[in-house]
Amino acid sequence: MYIEALKKELKDKKYRMTPQRELVLKVFIDNENDHLGAEDVYRILFSNKHSVSKATVYRTIELLVDFGFLRKLDFGEGIYRYELAKKNKMHHHFICKICGKIYEIEEKHLDILKKELENQGFVFEDFDFKIYGICPKCNKKTKKRIENKK
Ligand SMILES: [Zn+2]
Ligand SMILES: [Zn+2]
Q1: Which SS3 state, helix, strand or coil, does residue 144 take?
Q2: Would you list the DSSP string of 89-138?
Q3: pLDDT of 39 strictly over 60
Q4: Interval between CA 4 and ligand 2 midpoint (Å)
Q5: How far, in Å, from the CA of 114 to the mean position of ligand 2?
Q6: 145 Cα: distance to centroid of ligand 1 (angstroms)
Q7: Nearest ligand to the CA atom of 133
Q8: Mean pLDDT across the stretch 118-124?
Q9: Mean pLDDT (whole number) for 65-94
Q10: Which of 23, 72, 107, 134 has the highest Cβ tally under 10 A?
């Protein structure tokens, strides 16, 4: 479905659907639950024996962002991560400060926020909300460690 949408969009904008573009988008579809950086995409393609240069991967990802297929995310690591823009529901990101894993937290109140903003004359386009803390797994481990010390 994404591939078809991308093909159409590329055609509308007079770009060609190159095998590279299709490959890069497919990596994101196959790893839907991850938040991949450009290096991750390159590594995945490389390990699947696809010879796409790093520069092409970076360029292609930016193109896919421009087309609205990918959302660019900044978790303050000095690199950008990306995810499929149209996937499932609006969500927030919870970043565990112990294991570094990024969890997706479903957004339930966005409609209320949107309405409030619109009432004030704002135009809502996108949002980027990050929560930092300790994930349930690490929380359990930490608790165990404290208990063992007792
Ligand atoms: Zn954790
Ligand atoms: Zn996400």
Answers
A1: helix
A2: S-EEEEEETTT--EEEEE-SSHHHHHHHHHHTT--------EEEE--HHH
A3: yes
A4: 22
A5: 19
A6: 14
A7: 1
A8: 93
A9: 86
A10: 23
Residues 6+ apart with CB under 8 A from 89: 106, 107
Tokens of 66: 């421009």
Burial of 108 by CB count in 10 Å (0-12 exposed, 13-18 middle, 19+ buried)? exposed
Ligand nearest to the CA of 137: 1
Q: How confident is the model at residue 145 (pLDDT cuts 50, 70, 90)?
A: confident
Global pTM value = 0.78
Return the biggest CA–CA distance within the chain: 67
Write the CATH number of the domain with boundaries 90-150. 3.30.1490.190
d(C-alpha 5, C-alpha 76), whole Å: 31
Tell me how far apart the alpha carbons of residues 62 and 50 are, in angstroms, rounded to a whole number.
19
Q: Where are the domains of the chain?
A: 1-87, 90-150
Average pLDDT over residues 57-72: 91
CATH 1.10.10.10 for domain 1-87, yes or no, is yes
